[in-house]
Amino acid sequence: MNHLVPMPVVMPLLGAALTLMLAGRPRAQRWVSLTVLTATVVVSALLLVRSTVDGPLVVEVGGWVAPLGIVLVADQLAALMLVVSATVTLCVLVYSIGQGMADGDEETPLSVYHPTYLVLTAGVCNAFLSGDLFNLYVGFEILLVASYVLLTLGSTETRIRAGTTYVVVSLLSSLIFLVAIGLVYSATGTLNLAQLVGRLDALPDDLRLVLQGMLLLAFGIKAAVFPLSAWLPDSYPTAPAPVTAVFAGLLTKVGVYATIRTETLLFPGGRTADLLLWVAGLTMLVGILGAVAQSDIKRLLSFTLISHIGYMLFGVGLTTSLGLAAAIFYVVHHITIQTTLFLAAGLVERRGGSTALDRLGGLARLSPLLAVLFFVPALNLAGIPPFSGFLGKLGLVQAGVDDGGPLAWALVAAGLVTSLLTLYAIARVWNLAFWRAPHPDMPTPEGAPARGADDADRAHGDPAGPPGVLLPRLMIASTAALVVFGLALTVVAGPLFDISTDAADDLLRRTPYVEAVYPEGTP
């Protein structure tokens, strides 16, 4: 199935071209986008199955032999990321279609939305499959250019201001990454990841440390780790709900993926392990303290996003098979749950008219279905048993205890404190937005008092909300699908953790990746 490896990149790019030609025909654009992303999910699942059975799948693009040509590699880690990201982007697309139809924009939508969204998907998939540093850079740039457009949709003053900050920070991280690529090529004469394994090992330790540090700095900005994360809470919440959701779920995780890939494949030995552990602990604690201080749901979720990046770095910094496996498992969990919560926040804003906690109330009575769609992933994010969030954190705690070092124990404590504070932040949202009496300024059916809205719900047979503030069915269905997907991660946690463990073992051994790219030996 090697011929399927480029398809998660090629199909969205072809779909983007087709939807651009179909500008002015929104129904055709929607069907093309849905078909392309559904096919991407199916192909990604096939790649995961085959990479699990046969090992890494490799394609030399254009027939150019590595290292001269571009190599795409679908090992278990890359294929797993493809499956989760493709599933998430498909659900978010359905959500955005439902939102457009409900707002009356389905006949006159922005013609660039679907092409840009598919280009973003192609960039994410290319980054996961990249077999050389420069193509990884290209993947980052594709998704970032698309994200610039999506972030500023509507051209409001707030979005333009936030988009400007996002662009500047992204360009800075890209510049650092590009300089690091130039230095790596100057020192080794190649950018192919499999070939770099031997050549970087032969470099002086100090030079390797400089190269490693520059790559970590670039990826740290993209992953929004502390203290490089100040840009995120001011950028993400300003975008439309579907855009914020896909950004929160995927873009920072591409930076985490790049960190995992380079730290294990190119720079084994853990020379920066202590630094990663320190950064992980600070990211967890500072991020969650920021979340606790917020009075807006979107900003609160943005800070929890930063905080939980620390859990993933914790696993990477331990440099053990269990730690890395738990980190991979947690990435899969967090992509799903964080996206779901931002979609639920979009529903809250639609039903309540705001995401500010001081302007919300009574949502559990007004819209019981919305309450469930928020409550379940919120518990999962907080790590309540038996959800996948708890299982991922349990794996990280066990890995930290097995390490036994004082810094590892400190990270275990930081992780437990962060989990408790996450639960506190989520409980605060639940109490203020869902449980207390409805705020008098909240939208109500035909001017009726907010306290009677639940009666209108029952009268019209729609648990999602009363007339005038109904939650569109497609938006509800896509959010519910991701909630179910998040629950499914708990049901299949055993096999998923086995895949994560196999991927971690292959990463730490390095030879499966290298031998797949160079079966006759590295040149």
TrEMBL record:
InterPro entries: CPA3_Na-H_Antiporter_D (IPR050586), NADH_UbQ_OxRdtase (IPR003918), ND/Mrp_TM (IPR001750). The chain crosses the membrane at residues 6-24, 31-49, 77-98, 110-129, 135-154, 166-187, 207-232, 239-260, 275-293, 300-318, 324-348, 369-387, 407-427, 474-497. It is a multi-pass membrane protein. The keyword Transmembrane applies. It comes from the Bacteria. The keyword 4Fe-4S does not apply. GO terms for biological process: ATP synthesis coupled electron transport. One of its GO terms (cellular component) is plasma membrane. It is found in: Cell membrane; Membrane. One of its GO terms (molecular function) is NADH dehydrogenase (ubiquinone) activity. Keywords: Cell membrane, Membrane, Transmembrane, Transmembrane helix. Residues 130-422 form the NADH:quinone oxidoreductase/Mrp antiporter transmembrane domain. Residues 443-462 are annotated as: Disordered. Residues 452-461 have a biased composition (Basic and acidic residues). PANTHER family: NA(+)_H(+) ANTIPORTER SUBUNIT D1, NADH DEHYDROGENASE. Belongs to the CPA3 antiporters (TC 2.A.63) subunit D family. This is Multisubunit sodium/proton antiporter, MrpD subunit (TC 2.A.63.1). It comes from Micromonospora sagamiensis.
